[in-house]
Amino acid sequence: MSWIIRILLFLVLVSVIRLLLTRVFSPTLKMHSRPRFGSDRTRGTVAGRMIKDPQCGMYVATDLAITTRVNGKTLHFCSEECRDNFINGRNRSDRPNRQAV
């Protein structure tokens, strides 16, 4: 009968140690296993200043912006769609209103 108690105590001890280790190392493991924002890009962090997209008016970080040169001036866009619409002469009022869902 005493060997059963020893096995149960051993299992409880192993469970407690596992729980403590999981709580201690879980944040570290989650941090390394999460895909990073913009993981398809080589940049890891966003730096630089925020600049207004001339097409839609949204602010975007210069490091993440899609740039193009028009008449010798560099313009920053939030997306390829905004850049293409700007180049093709379509402005915001030509697009249908987008409703937030």
CATH class type of the largest domain: Mainly Beta
**CATH fold-level assignment of the largest domain:** Ribosomal Protein L24e, Chain: T
Strand content: 15-25%
Overall pLDDT: 77
Describe this structure in words.
The chain has 101 residues and is α+β, with helices and mostly antiparallel strands. The protein folds into 2 domains: 1-34; 50-91, Ribosomal Protein L24e, Chain: T. The chain has helices spanning 2-33, 80-87; strands at residues 50-52, 59-61, 66-70, 73-77. A hairpin with a 6-residue loop joins β1 (50-52) and β2.
Compact description:
By secondary structure, this protein is of the alpha+beta class. Helices cover 40% and strands 16% of the residues. It contains two helices and four strands, in the order αββββα.
Summarize the topology:
Elements (H helix, E strand, L loop, with lengths): L1 H32 L16 E3 L6 E3 L4 E5 L2 E5 L2 H8 L14
Antiparallel strand pairs: 1-2, 3-4
